[in-house]
Structure formats: structure tokens, C-alpha cells
Amino acid sequence: QLQLAESGGDTVQPGGSLRLSCEGSGFALDFYNVAWFRQGPGKEREGISCIATTGGTTGYADSVKDRFSISRDKTGNAVYLQMNSLKPDDTGVYFCAVHKAIPIAGVQHSCRLVQSPYAYWGPGTQVTVSS
After folding, report:
1. Concatenated DSSP letters of 59-108
2. Looking at the predicted structure, is the pLDDT value of residue 68 above 80?
3. What are the pLDDT digits (tens) for 95-122?
């Protein structure tokens, strides 16, 4: 059973920044599509950012575009979500999720911000934005 772990959640003031990390337990994330979802208080879980398998594209929800940035660690062991200009509406539990996606030469892979393709999920990390 693949296991994921998120870290980096904290309480910050509006306008602050955080970097979340997602790591696999005993496996590298190179050949996986990885996505970040969040669930705010009383809200449904929403996809906010994703990165396709090695060499693929990234995607962002409109609510975080130009503020959040997703990237892979050079070793392939982690995926990061850099969050800048945080707002109170960004408060919630942040989850990373993955599904296997073997890169194919000559194909630019993409990722999706819906839950269904993602087979493995972490337990989440709390982000609170409050003054």
C-alpha cells in the first residue's frame, strides 16, 4: 500500500507564505501525477494544483493561480506547493494525492484537478490563515 505524507502546514497571517511538501513512503514520485486538494471549513474538497508525470505540465485552480506554485524536487522524492499572498479563504486541510502515470516519449502529459484519477491520498496538513 502506497503511503503519502504532507508537511508544512501552519498558522500564518494574511499575506504570508508557506511551502507544503508531499512525499511518498518508500517510493519516488517521478512517475506519478501529483495533485494538491484542499477542504475548507464547511466546504467541499477542491483541486487547487497538479503536476503531471516527469516532463509534463502543471495546472492551477483560478482561486490560486499567480499565488501558488507547484514543483518537483530534483531527486523525484517530493512535490512542493509554494503558497504566497495567503488569504483567510485559503484556510483548510491540504491533501496531496497521486496516481501512476508512466511518461511516454514524445507525449506531453497533463494532469487533472478532479479527485477521480487519484488513487492514493495523504492524511492532510492544516493551513490556517488568520490575523
Report:
1. EE-TTTTTTEEEEE-TTSSEEEEEE-S--GGG-EEEEEEEEE----TT--
2. yes
3. 999 999 888 888 888 999 999 999 999 9
